[in-house]
Amino acid sequence: MRIDVLTIFPSFFDVLEVSLLGKARGAGLLDVRVHDLRDWTHDRHRTVDDTPYGGGAGMVMKPEPWGEALDAVTEGSERPVIVFPSPAGEVFSQRTARALVETDHLVFGCGRYEGIDERVFAYAATLGEVRLMSLGDYVLNGGEVAAMAMIEAVGRLIPGVVGNPESLVEESHEDGLLEYPSYTKPSSWRGYEVPPILLSGNHGAIADWRRAQQIVRTRERRPDLMPGE
Ligand SMILES: COc1ccc2nc(C(=O)O)sc2c1
């Protein structure tokens, strides 16, 4: 999978060098290219924003640099998916990550200021599939944090990136429920005991207990995820 990131803060993504995804890049499983949007400006101040038509507070990102940048990073790409992190977008979920990991070429366009000139999204749709996505019902200062989270959520699903693929299966949201509680040695710690069932060696009973814990936790913490409730 190839991922291109367009941002005015490219150093923000330096962390991708050291994380699990850094190893994935080194192993050739993931090709992440981070670009400074200002490289597609042509004035001395490398201007990427201007005042909004119709008035209002803040600044809007100019369409010209975005158009040239999107042309450059999608050149030769058959059908990229172009994700614009946006508080006005669909909410990103594990299901979204599962769908996006099947994509050969992902482009993340990180907005700042009050957002990107709307015409950029229309133009981008001539280059690929456009998805505006939010991490949730709150607002960040820009798209970089959201893009980083989405890149990690998608990147870790690429076969070979996470050491033991089994560990992906029993995670929260993978089966629609929150994950069960985990414990390790010592079995007794500051008066807190590991649930005895987990020490029983009865794998069938342990699986049943874990499923029951998932249901209890999901009902308590995320009733909206409960199937049929
Ligand atoms: C201007 O670009 C932005 C601004 C806020 C923001 N908030 C997001 C979120 O997912 O909450 S994505 C995003 C992009």
From TrEMBL:
<keyword id="KW-0489">Methyltransferase</keyword>
<dbReference type="InterPro" id="IPR029026">
    <property type="entry name" value="tRNA_m1G_MTases_N"/>
</dbReference>
<keyword id="KW-0949">S-adenosyl-L-methionine</keyword>
<protein>
    <recommendedName>
        <fullName>tRNA (guanine-N(1)-)-methyltransferase</fullName>
        <ecNumber>2.1.1.228</ecNumber>
    </recommendedName>
</protein>
<dbReference type="InterPro" id="IPR029028">
    <property type="entry name" value="Alpha/beta_knot_MTases"/>
</dbReference>
<dbReference type="GO" id="GO:0032259">
    <property type="term" value="P:methylation"/>
</dbReference>
<comment type="subunit">
    <text>Homodimer.</text>
</comment>
<dbReference type="InterPro" id="IPR023148">
    <property type="entry name" value="tRNA_m1G_MeTrfase_C_sf"/>
</dbReference>
<dbReference type="Pfam" id="PF01746">
    <property type="entry name" value="tRNA_m1G_MT"/>
</dbReference>
<keyword id="KW-0819">tRNA processing</keyword>
<dbReference type="InterPro" id="IPR016009">
    <property type="entry name" value="tRNA_MeTrfase_TRMD/TRM10"/>
</dbReference>
<feature type="domain" description="tRNA methyltransferase TRMD/TRM10-type">
    <location>
        <begin position="1"/>
        <end position="226"/>
    </location>
</feature>
<dbReference type="GO" id="GO:0052906">
    <property type="term" value="F:tRNA (guanine(37)-N1)-methyltransferase activity"/>
</dbReference>
<comment type="function">
    <text>Specifically methylates guanosine-37 in various tRNAs.</text>
</comment>
<comment type="similarity">
    <text>Belongs to the RNA methyltransferase TrmD family.</text>
</comment>
<feature type="binding site">
    <location>
        <begin position="135"/>
        <end position="140"/>
    </location>
    <ligand>
        <name>S-adenosyl-L-methionine</name>
    </ligand>
</feature>
<feature type="binding site">
    <location>
        <position position="111"/>
    </location>
    <ligand>
        <name>S-adenosyl-L-methionine</name>
    </ligand>
</feature>
<dbReference type="InterPro" id="IPR002649">
    <property type="entry name" value="tRNA_m1G_MeTrfase_TrmD"/>
</dbReference>
<keyword id="KW-0808">Transferase</keyword>
<keyword id="KW-0963">Cytoplasm</keyword>
